[in-house]
C-alpha cells in the first residue's frame, strides 16, 4: 500500500519522508532530554555502589542487605519496564515522559531520611520501577522522531549518557566521601538531574508516529509542521492500529524479543557488577581502597563511555551484525584473561578492564537500537519493556549473589563466570543478529523482515 502524507492539507512540494529529513535543533532536543532516563539509571545504580560502602555502620547492613540494596533498583526496573512499555503504547509517550521524573525526584529525597535497610530497599525498588517505565517511553520517542541516517548515533547517545550518569555518580560519591552521613546526600542528589531533565522535556511534543498509528492524523500533522515547517510522510499504513500486548509474543516478534533480551543480559550482567560493586572489585584486585578505588572506577567508567562513541559510527559503516559479534568476542577474551591468569599485574588488570569497557560499547548501543528498529509503533514500547525485563531477570539474580560469590569463590572465578556470560552473547549474536542498517522503521519492523 503506498505511503500517505501525514497532513491532509495540499502542498506545492512533494512531502519528504521522515526517514530522510535533516537533524534539526528540535530533534536534538528530543534526543538530549529523552536520554535523561538512562542517565538517571546510570546515576542511581552508580551512587548506590558508593553509598553502600559508607551506610553500613548507620543502617546495620550485612552481606544479605548489601545484595538486596544493590539489586533493588534492578528489580524495580524489571517491573517498570514491562508496565511502562505497555502504558506508553496505550496512552502515548509524553504523559509518562514527565510524570516519571517528578516521582524519581520525590523518591530520591525520601532516601535521605531512611533509618532502616528495609525502608531504603522499598524506596530503591520504587525508584527502579519509575526508571524502568521511562526506558520504553524515552527510546520510543527517539526512534520515532529520528531519521534513519542518525538513528544509530541517537541510540548510541543513550548508551553514552548511561555511563555518563554512572561516572557523575562516582564524582558525587568522591566529593561526599569524607562527609558525615554523606551517603544520605549521595542518594538524595538524584533530584538535581531530575529537575534539569524535567525542564527540558516539558515542551517536547507527542510522537507523531504514535498519533498517526492511533488515527489522530490532524494532531500528528500539527506536530510535524511545528517541528519541520512542512508536511512529512511517516511511512505508516493509513489504518489506525490497536495496541495489543500479546502481539509482542507472537511470531516473529517473540524471537526478536528473546534475541534482544539475551544480548542485553550478556552485556549487562558483568557491566552492572562492575558499577554496583566497583569499589569492592577494585579492592579485591588490589587497586586501592576508599577514594582511590573511586578514582579507579571513574577511569574504567570513562572508557565505558568512550567505547560508545566509535560504536555509533561503526553501526552504520560496519553494520549492526558484525559490530555486536566482534564486540562480544573481545569482551569474552578480556574477562577470561583476568580469570585464568594467576595474580595478574596491575597493568594486565587495567588493560583487560579497559578493553572490556571499550568493546562493551557495541552491544551497549545496539541493545537500545535493535528493539526500536525491530518492532512496529503499536508495540514498540511494550517490546522494549519486555526485552529490558528479560535482561534484568539475570542481572538482578547475579547482583544479589555477587557479594557472596566473590567472598567464597574469589575474583578469578568471578571473572571466568563473566567471560562465560559474554561468550553466550557471542554465540547468540552469531546465530540470530539481524542487519538493519540502511532500512527505515517500516521495513525493519515488518513481520517478514529477515535482515540477512
Automatic annotation (TrEMBL):
Signal peptide: none annotated. The keyword NADP does not apply. Keywords: Membrane, Transmembrane, Transmembrane helix, Transport. Residues 30-437 form the Major facilitator superfamily (MFS) profile domain. Coiled coil: none annotated. One of its GO terms (molecular function) is transmembrane transporter activity. InterPro entries: MFS_dom, MFS_sugar_transport-like, MFS_trans_sf, Myo-inositol_Transporter, Sugar/inositol_transpt, Sugar_transporter_CS. GO terms for cellular component: plasma membrane. This is Metabolite transport protein YaaU. It is a multi-pass membrane protein.
Amino acid at each position: 500500500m503506498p505511503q500517505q502524507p501525514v497532513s491532509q492539507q495540499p502542498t506545492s512540494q512533494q512531502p519528504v519522508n521522515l526517514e530522510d529529513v535533516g537533524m534539526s535543533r528540535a530533534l536534538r532536543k528530543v534526543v538530549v532530554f529523552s536520554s535523561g532516563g538512562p542517565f538517571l539509571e546510570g546515576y542511581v545504580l552508580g551512587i548506590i555502589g558508593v553509598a553502600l560502602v559508607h551506610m553500613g555502620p548507620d543502617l546495620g547492613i550485612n552481606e544479605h542487605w548489601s545484595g538486596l540494596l544493590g539489586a533493588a533498583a534492578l528489580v524495580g526496573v524489571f517491573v517498570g519496564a514491562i508496565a511502562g512499555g505497555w502504558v506508553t503504547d496505550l496512552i502515548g509517550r509524553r504523559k509518562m515522559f514527565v510524570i516519571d521524573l517528578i516521582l524519581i525526584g520525590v523518591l530520591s529525597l525520601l532516601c535521605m531520611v531512611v533509618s532502616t535497610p528495609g525502608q531504603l530497599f522499598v524506596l530503591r525498588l520504587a525508584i527502579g520501577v519509575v526508571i524502568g517505565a521511562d526506558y520504553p517511553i524515552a527510546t520510543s520517542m527517539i526512534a520515532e522522531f529520528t531519521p534513519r541516517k542518525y538513528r544509530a548515533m541517537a541510540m548510541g547517545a543513550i548508551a553514552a549518557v548511561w555511563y555518563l550518569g554512572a561516572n557523575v555518580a562516582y564524582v558525587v560519591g568522591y566529593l561526599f566521601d569524607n562527609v558525615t552521613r554523606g551517603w544520605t546526600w549521595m542518594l538524595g542528589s538524584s533530584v538535581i538531574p531530575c529537575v534539569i531533565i524535567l525542564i527540558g522535556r516539558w515542551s517536547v511534543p507527542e510522537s507523531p508516529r504514535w498519533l498517526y498509528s492511533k488515527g489522530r492524523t490532524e494532531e500528528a500533522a500539527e506536530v510535524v509542521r511545528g517541528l519541520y515547517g512542512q508536511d512529512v510522510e511517516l511511512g505508516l499504513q493509513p489504518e489506525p492500529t490497536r495496541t495489543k500486548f500479546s502481539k509482542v509474543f507472537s511470531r516473529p516478534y517473540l524471537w526478536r524479543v528473546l534475541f534482544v533480551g539475551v544480548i542485553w543480559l550478556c552485556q549487562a550482567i558483568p557491566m552492572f557488577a562492575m558499577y554496583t560493586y566497583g569499589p569492592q572489585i577494585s579492592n579485591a584486585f588490589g587497586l586501592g581502597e576508599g577514594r582511590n578505588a573511586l578514582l579507579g572506577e571513574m577511569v574504567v567508567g570513562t572508557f565505558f563511555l568512550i567505547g560508545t562513541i566509535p560504536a555509533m559510527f561503526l553501526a552504520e559503516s560496519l553494520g549492526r551484525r558484525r559490530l555486536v559479534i566482534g564486540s562480544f568476542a573481545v569482551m569474552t577474551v578480556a574477562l577470561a584473561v583476568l580469570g585464568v591468569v594467576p595474580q595478574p599485574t596491575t597493568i594486565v588488570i587495567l588493560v583487560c578492564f579497559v578493553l572490556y569497557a571499550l568493546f562493551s560499547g557495541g552491544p551497549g548501543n545496539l541493545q537500545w537500537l535493535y528493539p526500536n528498529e525491530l518492532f512496529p509503533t503499536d508495540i514498540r514500547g511494550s517490546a522494549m519493556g519486555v526485552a529490558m525485563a528479560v535482561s534484568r531477570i539475570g542481572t538482578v539474580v547475579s547482583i544479589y549473589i555477587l557479594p557472596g560469590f566473590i567472598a567464597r569463590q574469589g575474583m578469578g572465578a568471578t571473572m571466568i563466570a563473566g567471560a562465560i556470560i559474554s561468550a553466550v552473547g557471542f554465540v547468540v549474536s552469531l546465530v540470530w543478529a539481524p542487519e538493519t542498517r540502511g532500512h527505515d522503521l517500516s521495513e525493519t519492523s515488518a513481520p517478514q523482515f529477515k535482515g540477512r
